[in-house]
Design a protein that fits this description.
Length: 467
């Protein structure tokens, strides 16, 4: 008897997403970060909704494993058919039934013979003029959907930079664990994220959330990270997929989780993709990468960087090494409407002539040929991709938070406030290059967003912003 015949409807555990008791107004994202208890009272699930969904699940033959009104998540177990049929008016999505792989890491490994220039994160901190700070008192959450890290790699890497090894802790989500040495590609992503973020903010605490590579696992990791106590300063995400490869329900649930993070004072950053404007989809038509396309996420695009002997930038252009070498993602979302904060920056219309969210918001070096020096499973490597930009910006956010004494949450309204005029406050504009369908130009563009950080100007912008 085949396995499918013996077990035609296996038992699975899924994540049920409940509706909010209230939808947050736009002004809520500009207000001070909410304590978790206040968040629960305003935007969590109504206890009566939780009870109603528990009753409906039980009636459908499902077992309720856990329920949390603050995160609006319920874990239920039962047959796949029963879970697919399950519905209730209080439920927004049921995720994780099929356990299909949902995302890929957004990194590119440079071939040693082709690398022209590479940098340590400390050299990049100097090139971008980051404020003198070490991230003390801050926490960075990193989401990983595979791979792992070993302490020996971390000690060797940070020791080689003359830095203390940051406090790095692995957190298990839905049974996934830190598992180095099984998947070199995924290990490369994990270690790139930790080493870049940790070098930029070595005194910050780093929590690495390992989750199954499913829509439910991804959502559960983001939610667990955002609702941790204390809440992290930043969540760094270097995994993604073309937004049309996600179900609408999964995108909606993830976007709501990113909005929750922002309300709790957490800035979420995500790689914009490494396959140009097509995001590696057939026929080469423009596509955006999700979760970078979420309006509650700081989408991170990529550049190619040349730094002179003095440590100052000689030149910086859009990263585009061609079809085989990779290029920064970016474009106009087909899933999310144009957010108000982008209303005056000239985001182009979609193919259907309607307005959509523009991606990315910010950028930094991502070209593997001018990439990041890291250590992976004991071997030195040079890695690029927008995967590296998200943790770089997460470390920068921690430096800025330390210096200003502020939590930033949804950073977009502040950084876009002056973007209709040039030069854009807080950024150095990238005006040369393309990612396929889109060209760099003065001001915001779908290649590098607002540009790369101008550390002193960005610090001044955030210091003076009414946050």
């Amino acid at each position: 008897m085949t396995e499918s015949a013996a077990n035609p409807d296996p038992t699975v555990t899924a994540t049920v997403v409940l509706r909010r008791r209230n939808d947050p107004p736009a002004a809520a994202f500009a207000a001070a970060a909410l304590p978790r208890a206040a968040f629960a009272q305003r935007y969590g699930a109504d206890p009566s909704d939780v009870q109603a969904v528990q009753d409906a699940a039980t009636s459908a033959g499902l077992d309720v494993v856990s329920a949390d009104s603050t995160t609006r998540l319920m874990r239920v177990r039962g047959s796949a058919d029963a879970l697919r049929a399950f519905s209730a008016p209080q439920v927004l999505a049921v995720l994780g039934i099929d356990e299909a792989r949902i995302a890929d890491p957004r990194l590119r490994v440079a071939h040693s013979q082709a690398v022209s220039t590479s940098y340590t994160p400390l050299q990049l901190a100097t090139a971008y003029g980051m404020p003198q700070a070490d991230g003390s008192g801050q926490t960075i959450a990193i989401i990983e959907l595979g791979g792992g890290f070993g302490q020996a790699d971390l000690d060797s890497y940070f020791g080689g930079l003359g830095l203390p090894t940051p406090a790095v802790e692995a957190v298990s989500v839905d049974g996934a664990v830190n598992l180095p040495g099984q998947d070199p590609g995924a290990d490369g992503e994990v270690l790139l994220d930790i080493e870049v973020a940790g070098a930029i903010a070595p005194a910050a605490k780093i929590l690495v959330y390992f989750a199954p590579n499913t829509d439910a696992g991804f959502l559960d990791a983001v939610t667990q990270a955002a609702h941790a106590t204390p809440a992290p300063t930043a969540i760094s995400i270097s995994w993604g997929q073309s937004e049309d490869q996600w179900s609408p329900e999964a995108r909606q649930a993830m976007d709501a989780a990113f909005a929750d993070a922002a309300l709790l004072g957490v800035t979420v950053l995500a790689a914009a993709g490494d396959s140009g404007s097509s995001d590696n989809q057939p026929q080469g038509a423009p596509h955006c990468d999700f979760p970078a396309s979420s309006p509650h996420v700081l989408g991170c695009g990529g550049t190619s960087l040349q730094v002179g002997a003095s440590g100052a930038v000689d030149s910086e252009t859009v990263w585009n090494d061609g079809g085989q070498g990779g290029s920064t993602g970016g474009g106009v979302s087909d899933a999310f409407a144009l957010p108000s904060y982008q209303g005056s920056v000239g985001v182009p219309l979609r193919a259907g002539k309607s307005a959509g969210r523009g991606v990315p918001d910010v950028a930094a070096v991502a070209d593997p040929q001018t990439g990041y020096r890291v250590l992976v499973d004991g071997q030195p490597a040079v890695i690029g991709g927008t995967s590296a930009v998200a943790p770089l910006w997460a470390g920068l956010i921690c430096r800025l938070a330390q210096v200003t004494g502020r939590r930033f949450g949804l950073l977009h309204p502040v950084i876009y406030a002056g973007a209709a005029s040039l030069p854009i406050p807080g950024f150095r504009d990238i005006t040369s290059g393309n990612n396929g369908a889109y060209k760099a130009e003065a001001g915001w563009d779908p290649c590098t967003g607002l540009g790369v950080p101008d550390g002193p100007a960005l610090l001044e912008l955030l210091r003076s912003a009414p946050m």
